[in-house]
Specification:
The protein is an alpha+beta fold. The chain contains 17 helices and 20 strands. The longest helix is centred in the first third of the chain and has 18 residues. The protein is globular.
């Protein structure tokens, strides 16, 4: 049990509801005409620029494109963000995910800080989302269904009530509370946070369950092994109501791996587990009794790069500025792949958000990949919403979709690398800083 199982379960859920298709590399084209055809917000991204961009210009382009997804691919009435979208052509799906919505709410804050839209418009979208989540979205003991219809909030299929995805949503809600300093937003955010029954999700154990369904009750898998779980536990320990004991922080295991001389804490899961909690929580220059988790993610990213480069004999496209695999679409569907150790049907594909999500950890190396992708694969891998979720130059396969959580991790980590804005904003939430003190974080 633990993260590897959770990743597999979440991947199966996505394939069941959403599916995956691809397009041939040669069929893709980009530029102003396609941007205009997408409808909705049309920000000044324009056609793909000729020549190289500075790092800051590239990061601004990535963030602006990602925000366009979070604005266009959300319901103005409910604020719920689509789990994924077809970036070219008609997309009839109305399935949203609360994780994508959490990233989208944080994207509103980033957009306000960068002046992408007037504050009043951005605040209104945040209010729409929080009002709907507070009064109309179905919940169980305060936890939300992983997938819902973006227009009605109805549960999608047999989707589970998800503890980790509720945590990601709550991170976005608390980012809005801290950034906008609006009485209505603050009141709604407080109400949503206070009604979550974190103790219920323990299901009688010392670690949190991964979720619940009305048909079968609690899922058998638990958040019991190092992964993206840190934000979940800190939110639950610092909660204003129904909090879990600080001892739960010590209850999950922290297995270590040594790869090419690098030793770090990791679960048998893709690179994203070392990124998600860090998108909001600033773990820099502090540690608990077990680790400096920021440095741990630095080491994990270094090890992942070395792992990808070790596969060059099988996949000659992998090189110093072309690497990165994490939970994503593939030609075989939504898969958990990566390493070390090797996992999943690795086939030479590249997942742009793998390096985008690690920019604060290994900036020079990850930015080299992002620059290479934009300059040399821009005509095949760039969309009005940013990079496609995955593509494979060796087989000429390109994903037909962009995914909200993958665009989101890239946008937030790009902003954290540039200005530390998301970190500085989110860490204003007293529940998080109090929880970190309770579990023993110290500076240094």
């Amino acid at each position: 049990m633990g993260t590897a199982r959770s990743v597999s379960a979440r991947g199966l859920t996505r394939r069941k509801f959403l599916g995956t298709t691809g397009l041939a590399l040669a069929s893709l084209s980009f530029g102003g005409a396609l941007l205009d055809a997408c409808g909705g917000l049309k920000l000044s991204i324009g056609t793909l620029p000729n020549g190289a961009l500075t790092d800051d210009q590239l990061l601004e382009t990535i963030e602006l494109a990602a925000f366009q997804f979070f604005w266009n691919q959300a319901s103005p009435a409910t604020g719920l963000v689509k789990d994924r979208a077809v970036w070219q052509g008609t997309d009839a799906s109305s399935v949203s995910s609360i994780a994508a919505t959490g990233f989208g709410l944080t994207a509103l804050c980033v957009a306000d800080s960068r002046g992408y839209l007037p504050t009043a418009q951005l605040k209104q979208r945040a209010l729409a989302a929080l009002s709907f989540l507070s009064a109309q979205a179905p919940v169980e003991n305060g936890f939300f269904y992983h997938f819902m219809d973006m227009n009605t909030g109805a549960r999608a299929g047999t989707s589970e009530v998800s503890s980790i995805d509720t945590a990601i949503l709550l991170c976005g809600i608390l980012a809005c509370r801290a950034h906008f300093q609006d009485p209505q937003i603050t009141s709604l955010a407080n109400e949503i946070y206070q009604r979550i029954n974190w103790q219920w999700m323990l299901d009688g154990g010392t670690t949190l369950s991964m979720g619940w369904t009305p048909e079968s009750g609690f899922l058998p898998a638990r958040w019991d092994t190092y992964s993206e779980l840190m934000m979940l536990y800190l939110l639950a320990i610092g909660a204003p109501a129904n909090a879990i004991p600080a001892s739960s922080w010590d209850a999950w295991s922290r297995p270590t791996l040594t790869y090419q001389g690098l030793t770090y804490i990791t679960g048998n899961a893709p690179l994203f587990i070392h990124q998600y909690s860090h998108a909001w929580i600033d773990f820099r220059n502090q540690h608990d009794a077990y680790a400096d988790y920021f440095q741990n993610s630095v080491t994990a990213t270094q090890a992942h790069k070395l792992f990808c480069l070790s596969l060059v004999g099988q996949f000659p496209d992998y090189k110093d500025n072309f690497w990165g695999i994490t939970l994503s679409d593939s030609v075989k569907g939504y898969v958990a792949w990566g390493g070390p150790p090797a996992m999943g049907p690795i086939d030479g594909s590249l997942v742009p958000c793998a390096t985008a999500g690690s920019m604060p950890f290994l900036p020079a190396d990850t930015l080299a990949v992002q620059q290479n992708l934009y300059e040399n694969f821009g005509s095949t891998a760039w969309t009005p919403y940013g990079f496609v979720d995955a593509f494979n130059p060796l087989t000429h396969w390109v994903d037909a979709y962009v995914l909200g959580i993958d665009l989101g991790i890239g946008m937030l980590m790009a902003e954290n690398y540039r200005t530390q804005f998301v970190w500085n904003t989110f860490m204003q939430n007293p529940e998080i800083t109090a929880a970190m003190m309770q579990v023993g974080f110290q500076p240094g």
